[in-house]
Specification:
32% of the residues lie in helices and 16% in strands. It is α/β, with parallel strands linked by helices. It has three domains: 1-89, LysM domain (Membrane-bound Lytic Murein Transglycosylase D, Chain A, Roll); 94-212 and 317-367, D-Maltodextrin-Binding Protein, domain 2 (3-Layer(aba) Sandwich), CATH 3.40.190.10; 213-315, D-Maltodextrin-Binding Protein, domain 2, CATH 3.40.190.10. α4 (137-145) crosses α10 (328-345). It contains eleven helices and twelve strands. The protein has helices at residues 41-49, 55-60, 92-104, 137-145, 163-170, 196-203, 249-252, 269-278, 288-298, 328-345, 347-367; strands spanning 31-34, 76-79, 116-120, 155-159, 178-183, 205-207, 212-220, 239-241, 262-264, 283-287, 306-307, 313-322.
Length: 368
């Protein structure tokens, strides 16, 4: 669905220097690749892009991959091109421009409606940050959804970096209508111990359809016993670093909670990796793309910290409105309509890949 572009790597928010053409010949960016026995998403990403960050490959093949930790030999994966497009079709930028032109031609209602107030936060690159076009992936998806599928709703976006205040204070008090974006648990699953925060997400908020599926990894020292854990139960008794304000839902769903682990919660991914390096934490748990970009920013390699290859999490991010907001369901329904149309048109993936391209260019420029 996208034009074949240059065959050198890179698409990711954190790609390291691409491997030589010879080294990446079997798994080459901007090509289709057939999974071989023993392949993992991380090994494919390293060969094609020179980075273990496999989230972009997962994004491009979401309909084919149900479990990022298990690939079946013979599965054909599309490896994104340097500009974020997929082999054989329009570029991401061309598709976005076409959708914007089409949306601009749709007749808008003359009836005034107040702007929908959206709130995001910095420090979660490339998903929400004021340093990227449109405020990052999640912010762009949120605002674009309000202009698609017949929607023509004005909006405002503010960045409040105290993430916990979004759900605890700002949405309940009506200061904002929608917060971007949050992990939402399976509210029908009571097979694990729910925390108060998990309970609140199921009872106090209205959630959009899943916006983006994030792969989370567990990162340790190479010599740590936890680097060899093959099951989540092997992580019980460990000290896990999970940033302040970040949901514990993905860990709780795997049986890891405050009763069987010690959780430390600094403010940033850098502080979590520092905690692993200094022994303050055994394991850091957060997104694989944020891990790769933070490793690069800190000048670390796999000789310093590694991702456990056996355990990972998959969490769906959604936009949230508080149930006390009289327009909560109306606003979420509008966003759902827009998101569904964007997935069908390809604009959803185009926005994601375009933002990852922009973030990658910034990271490369900073390192040169």
């Amino acid at each position: 669905m996208f034009n074949k572009k240059l065959k050198k790597a890179v698409l990711s928010a954190s790609a390291f220097t691409a491997l030589s053409a010879g080294a990446a010949a079997a798994q080459e960016a901007c090509n289709n690749y057939t999974v071989q026995d023993g392949d993992t998403l991380a090994t494919i990403a390293i060969a094609a892009y020179g980075t273990s960050n496999y989230q972009p490959i997962f994004n491009a093949n979401r309909n084919a991959i149900t479990n990022p930790g298990s690939l079946s030999p013979g599965l054909v994966l599309a490896l994104p091109c340097e500009d974020g497009s997929l082999p054989n079709g329009q570029s991401a930028q061309e598709l976005i421009a076409a959708e914007e032109k089409r949306a601009a031609s749709v007749k808008r209602s003359n009836v005034y409606a107040p702007p929908i107030k959206l709130v995001a936060g910095n420090g979660w690159e490339p998903f929400t940050t004021e340093s990227l076009n449109g405020g990052g992936i999640m912010t762009r998806l949120a605002t674009t959804s309000l202009q698609r599928a017949g929607n023509s709703r004005d909006y405002s976006v503010s960045f409040v970096d105290d993430w916990s205040s979004h759900l605890d204070t700002l949405l309940p008090l009506g200061a904002f209508d929608i917060s971007i974006a949050w992990t939402v648990p399976d509210c029908t699953n009571r097979s694990y111990e729910w925390s108060e925060a998990t309970e609140a997400r199921c009872t106090q908020f209205v959630a959009s359809v899943p916006v983006y599926d994030i792969v989370g990894g567990f990162f340790t020292l190479p010599e740590s016993d936890y680097a060899k854990a093959t099951d989540f139960s092997d992580l019980e008794g460990s000290t896990i670093c999970r940033m302040s304000g970040w949901s514990m839902v993905v860990l709780e769903e795997q049986g890891l909670n405050h009763n069987n682990t010690t959780v430390v919660q600094p403010n940033s991914a850098r502080e979590c990796l520092d905690a692993v390096l200094t022994g303050t934490a055994d394991v850091a748990a957060f997104e694989v793309d944020l891990f790769a970009s933070t490793m690069k920013d800190m000048g670390l390699t796999s000789a310093d910290i590694v991702e456990n290859p056996y355990v990972s999490t998959l969490s769906s991010m959604s936009f949230l409105a508080h149930r006390t907001n009289p327009f909560a369901r109306e606003y979420i329904a509008m966003m759902n309509k827009g998101l569904i149309e964007m997935r069908e048109s390809g604009e959803w993936y185009a926005i994601i890949s375009d933002t990852l391209r922009e973030q990658n260019e910034k990271l490369n420029a900073a390192s040169n």
